[in-house]
Write a structure and sequence with these properties.
By secondary structure, the chain is α/β, with parallel strands linked by helices. It is built from 10 helices and 13 strands. Helices cover 28% and strands 27% of the residues. Strands 3-2-4-1-5-6-7 form a 7-stranded parallel β-sheet, sandwiched between helices. A 6-stranded antiparallel β-sheet has the order 8-9-13-10-11-12, covered by helices on one side. Keywords: Chaperone, Hydrolase, Nucleotide-binding. Belongs to the SIMIBI class G3E GTPase family. ZNG1 subfamily. This is GTP-binding protein.
Length: 308
């Protein structure tokens, strides 16, 4: 199974390093590595993170979306050859990076087999946006938002309720349909990332709550393969209500070829999955949404209609 990669972008001072520190220090039990890019010759972010991850690699004095792109790919190769191999990799871009180029590099089929892009986060500084509304018109800021699967509106404790209420529709207009998480000190729900293999335990009959109260999850399995066109149509209907989805799927006419399905934000991907264990159902799917949006009965009925 490919190692999941989380790409963290955002404008200068938005709180990227603080968010990564939060993820690295949570009690999830995963071995995480971090790749940190600072545009200057001294990489302060790497020093701040060095005690928090199994491996912190600093890429400095350049931008990983252009001059350091080859260094980034070589660094990923080194991390993949570590023993033990990290169970997740976080890449922090500099505040002047356009993540679109990095996303294109990570989507290369050769890289994807070993290190699959899990999600793209873009941090937005609530205080800075409230003070300087023109920031959302900055071409770099717009590029960062367009590449995001999830927008983290950080430092919401530094703005009033009225300012916050005005910011959300502006971000939604800049990146229509994107999930927006509000955060203080970069504290995002770790359950949304590096989900690993979530299908080894029992399957809940109803949505269960995360330790972070805002989100819930439900699982669905099928002993029969799915119709690919019907599943694609179902996902299109479910996508506006989901934060993310992940599953091991088999489709009619392609039995024996399990596929890993991942969806985060508005981006969905398929890639080959390893053979399932003998007692595993051919189709195993996990959905994550904000509380109250899963509608388990309707969602289950929709997924049941996808059976071949």
């Amino acid at each position: 199974m490919a190692i999941p990669v989380l790409l963290v972008s955002g404008f200068l001072g938005a709180g990227k390093t603080t968010l990564i520190n939060h993820l690295l220090t949570q009690p999830h039990g995963r071995r995480l590595a971090a790749v940190v890019n600072d545009f200057g010759a001294i990489n302060i972010d790497a020093e701040l993170l060095s005690a928090r991850a199994d491996g912190v690699v600093a890429l400095q004095n350049g931008c990983i979306c252009c001059s350091l792109q080859g260094d980034l790919l070589r660094t990923l190769g080194l991390l993949l050859r570590q023993d033990p191999v990290p169970e997740g990799i976080i890449i922090e871009t500099s505040g002047v990076s356009d993540p679109a180029e990095i996303v294109r590099s990570l989507m290369d089929p050769v890289i994807w087999r070993e290190a699959a892009l899990d999600a793209v986060l873009c941090l937005a500084d609530a205080r800075a946006l409230a003070d300087r509304p023109a920031l959302l018109q900055d071409p770099l800021c717009q590029s960062q938002l367009r590449a995001a699967d999830i927008i983290v509106l950080n430092k919401v404790d530094e703005v009033s309720a009225e300012e916050l209420a005005a910011l959300r529709p502006r971000l939604d207009a800049a990146r229509p349909g994107c999930t927006i998480l509000e955060a203080v000190q970069g504290a995002v729900p770790p359950e949304l990332f590096f989900t690993g293999d979530p299908w080894r335990g029992s399957i809940p009959a109803a949505p269960s709550r995360f330790s972070t109260p805002r989100f819930e999850t439900m699982s669905w399995t099928s002993d029969a393969p799915l119709s690919l066109p019907r599943f694609q149509a179902a996902v299109s209907r479910l996508a506006p209500r989901l934060v993310r989805a992940k599953g091991i799927l088999q489709f009619a006419g392609r039995e024996g070829q399990p596929m890993l399905f991942q969806m985060v934000g508005q981006r969905a991907t398929f890639s080959p999955a390893p053979p399932p264990s003998p007692d595993a159902a051919p189709v195993r799917l996990v959905l994550i949404a904000e509380n109250g949006r899963l509608r388990p009965e309707a969602t289950t009925a929709l997924l049941e209609s996808c059976r071949a």
